[in-house]
Amino acid sequence: MPKVEVGKNESLERALKRFKKKIEREGVLKQLKARKHYEKPSERRRKKRKGGGKRF
């Protein structure tokens, strides 16, 4: 589990922003969403062939 230490003069909002970035970089949310619903192997292959997903 990712951890972020809050500095002495750092605001909580800033620390929360760093925490969210760290989670995104490590792929925690992506992994959580993948485990939320079972995906059949054939669906996984289809998704992989399609191209991976949306771009932001």
Task: Describe the model.
It is a single chain. The protein has 56 residues and is an all-alpha fold. It has a domain of 38 residues. 61% of the residues lie in helices and 0% in strands. The chain contains 3 helices and no strands. The longest helix has 15 residues. It is elongated, with a radius of gyration of 16 Å. The relative contact order is 0.10.
Strand and helix layout:
Layout: H1 12-26, H2 28-36, H3 41-50
What can be said about this structure in brief?
With 56 residues, the chain is mostly helical. Helix content is 61%, strand content 0%.
Shape: elongated
What string, H for helix and E for strand, traces the elements in order?
HHH
Number of DSSP E strands: 0
Structural class: mainly alpha
Main sheet attributes: strand count, strand direction, barrel closure: none
The termini sit apart by: 25 Å
Contiguous uncertain segments of 5+ residues: none
Multimeric status of the protein: single chain
Question: Main attributes?
Answer:
56 residues; 0% strand; 61% helix; 3 helices
